């Protein structure tokens, strides 16, 4: 059976492509981990050449960027973030029938129904009446397994990066910014079969043993053999686009959860971070202190992330004694605004703590493996655990506020549904304080201090007192012997000698 060769798809590259913005820039899609775009082909596609390009921005080290997938085979061309690098997977395992025109019963009927005999070969038993068959030639085209390339590093830096894949038969290249990797297919088969072009979430998982993480970030300029699918979907130029990702450059808060009290916490399965680690989360609070993450391990191994006086502390021990990295933010972070935290550890045992746009790094000699055991605590600890914490860990109470976008080495847990246990008041969503500081919250130059459930007024630098600094302080000097005494009226206690 012949194969149509679509080298470069030159006929699919018009001078002005539908969907392009008037200024020539393509649309941006924002993904929060539950969002995707899926272009469904009107019929199965077969190509021996692909040219794919896109731009992405993310703070996550893992996530699906783009995948061409098949409903009937394990064929794929997939781009994903993997430990902060771009990973390209090319798998060509198309099943097919050769000489199918001769595979007929002697009475003239066909043993297979439908337009895609390859699908029936993969999923159907042998014909029930082999004696009635004339000649059938079965051909199975198999590559030597998926070919994988990597390019780029530390790409989860919340900056734009450009990716391009070019394949011509057996040869293919992956270019990320200025870093290029080359590869070659080991088998004889060079045809890619696909039904879909997917972004954000891999929905075709039938032939995938381990699906990539969902993508959280932004995509722009996806171009597959001349077809600019994001722009086409936006403008309605195609009828076969499934889309729930959001257009525009949006601030992404994924799966927020509120810890309403400092005694609230939950437990997840053990953090898997033996050789390397990529953690990400967002938080929002008005409290200067509180435990955020803790997992103990074998021996003295542990990891802890806490908020101390408004600054992030990352404390860990891989067997060499405890170490501490302090975030170097310009101001305390208990300002009721969202903040991003990225914590990484590479194979060279370099630890990096990045809070918003500012990073600190520490190289640690000695043991390089983090052997964690037991539950991963989020938001706080059990009441009897604080007295046995390792050195350098300061917190003695839990976190009060919102956590979101939790990424644990590529695992994106649902903090509510995936919790092994929960204690206290934990709710989905993040409404924040119901009563917030306003310009007139505190009178007479009192300072409004935002707390999670409400606010308080600091009247210490005024001549007023009371809940909102409305009660005037009256000072009456008195003399008792040689020593003056003071009576304060308006909320303060009397004092004197």
What does this structure look like?
- This protein has two helices and 37 strands.
- It is an all-beta fold and 497 residues long.
- The radius of gyration is 30 Å and the shape is globular.
- 3% of the residues lie in helices and 41% in strands.
- Mean pLDDT is 82; it is low at 1-24 and 96-141.
- Its main location: membrane.
- Pfam families: Laminin_G_2 (PF02210).
| CATH class group of the largest domain | Mainly Beta
% residues in beta strands: 35-45%
Whole-number average pLDDT? 82
The CATH topology of the largest domain is given as Jelly Rolls
Q: Label the overall shape.
A: globular
Unreliable parts: 1-24, 96-141
Largest sheet: 8 strands, antiparallel
- Supply the CATH architecture of the largest domain: Sandwich
Distance between the termini: 108 Å
The figure for the number of domains is: 4
Radius of gyration, taken over Cα atoms and rounded to an integer in Å: 30 Å
Helix content: under 10%
Sheet/helix structural class: mainly beta
Instruction: Give the strand tally.
Output: 37
List keywords for this structure.
497 residues, mainly beta, Jelly Rolls, eight-stranded antiparallel sheet, seven-stranded antiparallel sheet, disordered N terminus, Laminin_G, transmembrane helix, disulfide bond, EGF-like domain, EGF
Question: What's a concise summary of this model?
Answer:
Residues 433-470 form the EGF-like domain. This protein is mainly β and 497 residues long. It has helices at 117-123, 229-235; strands at 28-32, 37-47, 49-57, 63-69, 76-82, 85-91, 95-98, 137-140, 147-151, 161-168, 171-176, 179-184, 192-200, 216-224, 227-228, 241-243, 246-247, 257-259, 265-268, 277-284, 290-296, 302-308, 311-317, 323-326, 339-345, 350-355, 358-363, 376-378, 401-408, 421-423, 426-428, 447-450, 455-458, 464-465, 471-472, 474-480, 483-489.
